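Please, structure for the following, as tokens.
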Amino acid sequence: MAKKSLLKEVLTGPKYTKEDFIIPVSDSKGHSSPLGLRCRSRYIRTMHEVLAAGVFPYKTVSDILRHAIHRHLEWLKEIEPDIPISMTYLDAAVDIARVQQMHLDFLNTIQSVSTTVNQLVEVGMEGEAKKMVRSLIDRMEADPLEDAWRKKFTKELKERFGHLLPELK
């Protein structure tokens, strides 16, 4: 995560991306440790309100807490630069885990789309399969973010399902 103030981070660029808010649950080897804590009930209610609002890309209270811990460690290092913690290692580990998660999400999504398209074609609903593929491609191409994963997903859809939509070739 780039070094900038939280307010500046939130107010610049695409609003509230997963990359800025979600800290992966495990490292690149799948390791993680459970953490229990006691806090005021109002904190828990407030985090559930944040989740219910759907404004941020958090899916669970744990997502909020992991992000809060990461941000707080960054802040501690900022106000006391000589403290012996390495945010460089933590940031690198988070970046690696994010890329691995994006790749896994990509593979799972492509597999899910392939399964659904094949099932639709098998039961004689090729028109629905075409609509689904066309809709996904249109959504990806309309996305204002110039994201490598979006481009890869769109390219993969066109390669796998070009036979359904000849205009894609």
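DSSP finds seven helices and no strands in the chain. The two ends are 38 Å apart (CA to CA).
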